[in-house]
Amino acid sequence: MAHPELYLKKNEDKRLRKGHLWVFSNEVDTRRTPLDAFAPGDMVVIKDSSSKVLGSAYINPNTLVCARLISRKPSAKIGAHFFKARISQALALRERLFDKPYYRLVFAESDGLPGLIIDRFGPVLSVQITTAGMEKQKDSLIHVLLELLSPEAIILKNDNSQRQLENLSQTSEVIYGQLPESLIIEENQALFKLNVLEGQKTGWFYDHRDSRARTAKLCKDRHVLDLFSYSGAWGIPAALAGATEVTCVDSSASALALAQSSAELNHVSDNMQFVRSDVFDFLKQARDNNAHYDVIVLDPPALIKRKKDFKAGYQAYHRLNQLALQVLNKNGILVSASCSHHLSKTNLHELLRSSARHIDRHMMFFASGSQGPDHPIHPAIPETEYLKTYFCSVSNSL
Hints:
Blueprint: E1 5-7, H1 14-17, E2 22-24, E3 43-47, E4 53-59, E5 65-71, H2 80-97, E6 102-107, E7 116-121, E8 124-129, H3 132-135, H4 138-149, E9 153-156, H5 161-165, E10 173-177, E11 183-187, E12 190-194, H6 209-216, E13 223-227, H7 235-240, E14 245-250, H8 253-265, E15 272-276, H9 279-288, E16 293-298, H10 310-326, E17 328-338, H11 345-358, E18 361-369, E19 388-396
Parallel strand pairs: 1-3, 8-9, 13-14, 13-16, 14-15, 16-17
Antiparallel strand pairs: 2-5, 3-4, 4-5, 6-7, 7-8, 9-10, 11-12, 17-19, 18-19
Helix pairs in contact: 2-4, 9-10, 10-11
């Protein structure tokens, strides 16, 4: 059966023709196709103003991104066959990239599965569904995951703000199987304990894997400060690489408890300390106490979640980096990152430059990093490229 039609206004098809997959509500010709005629999760065929087909999509008339293309074909359907084909393709790439089953298996639009994130933690899959269209197909999705991967457990991580915008439940649940008593993953020759149900996002952040490996190599015989440390993914490999001391700072007691457990698992507890504190407060106190560190990792959460938050978020990033530079030893290394899509690499470059000049320090970028290969970038969707990292060598002004 043919899908209902959704017409775009004149000239609003250009971005889709370049390869993007989103339709915004203000791009729809609501006189020809009123949005209130559709229900959340319905399949539609997208047409331009001259009635040319652009592809099949699912729709939510109540959200800003009101439709997401799943195919350029006019009658494509989401179901078991669709999921099996797309997930098999995603799996084949990850198995070429990694020799152990610890990675992001599905990265939404980049893997042709808008509204779906899946992280693989060995025998456990953490699934994040963020749209009504994908939620409507949940049963088919779970069936295919069981068929392809035979996991011990599948968790639906529903506690994210995007689901609230889509008017979906935000209660996480184990939808299949039973979680192992202790879930442990391996990354960069380190072992980490996870609490997927209560952890942030999917329960782990695989995206910085490569940058964390590069950082660890810089930490031998150094005093390392890991800010916004979460569960120790930067700090523990640094300690394993021979850091004399690693200080992990985070405001979450549960994240620090996990980090401490992982430190014990890796036999590096004696070289690590865990401080529960607001990072701004910690840095101000460290500055006032004349404390200094050889390597500082600054990996804050997204401080600019929406375009309108840019000014305040930019200022927060600027203050954090300036404070970090003030407690960095001479000839020290600052690893500064941002996961805010709305803060560009150029923005991060500029705020680092101005922070260094403000306190009269000489800064050089000797490397940069992006998201790992299990977070592939869709060339037509800028939103899929969000992570940026600068590795900075900092000394007294020349």
